[in-house]
Design goal:
The termini are far apart. By secondary structure, the chain is an alpha+beta fold. Strands 1-2-3 form a three-stranded antiparallel sheet, covered by helices on one side. The longest helix has 14 residues. 41% of the residues lie in helices and 12% in strands. The protein is globular, with a radius of gyration of 13 Å.
Amino acid sequence: MDETEGEWLAQPDVDDIELVRVLQALGDPVRLWLLKMYASGERFTCSPDALGIAHLHKSTVSHHMKILREAGLTATRVVGRNRYVQLRRDDLDARFPGLLDALLKSVPDQVS
């Protein structure tokens, strides 16, 4: 995907990312799993299969992605009918140094 393609969905500015909202968003095992997937640095679509959560319906996955985006954890680019999601690693590390590394160490190797 070309970096100039598509449009970014609304997300909080770095200075507006709140720790409480980040932690609330990660209070669900599926969203913790998604954090681990996004931490690989890749961009993902909403495909449950690609995210390792094939047991969930696509609309449920989209809902989890929305919560992560609104909390400031991820950025989502819309290209046609597709949405590509990536972790806002640099922004989160700047806002809350060490938080992501600590959280990622605690994520299990499979989603429950």
